[in-house]
Amino acid sequence: MVAEPDTPAHLALYEHELCGFCRHVRHAIDASGLEVESRNILREPGHREDLIAGGGRGMVPCLRIEHRDGQVDWLYESADIIAYLERLAAR
């Protein structure tokens, strides 16, 4: 789990359209108004390779959080991602 959110430099959601949990996260992103890049691991297999190399697992959804200091966190589990996004949007 990621600590209280700072203002990240970049957010990217690793996802695919067949994943119901991904759809829940995508709805939360849409509701939040936050800018989050979509990285579909089925349409672009290179994204799946990046996900495994960076996050350690090929599971989606996964939110890649790039901080302004260059640190990168990988947040799995849709409920955790949605909670993080809600805290970030409330700031």
UniProtKB/TrEMBL annotation:
Domain GST N-terminal: 13-90
Signal peptide positions on this chain: none
Classification via PROSITE patterns: GLUTAREDOXIN_2
InterPro entries xref list: Glutathione_S-Trfase_N, Thioredoxin-like_sf
Gene3D superfamilies according to UniProt: Glutaredoxin
Protein's name in the database: Glutaredoxin
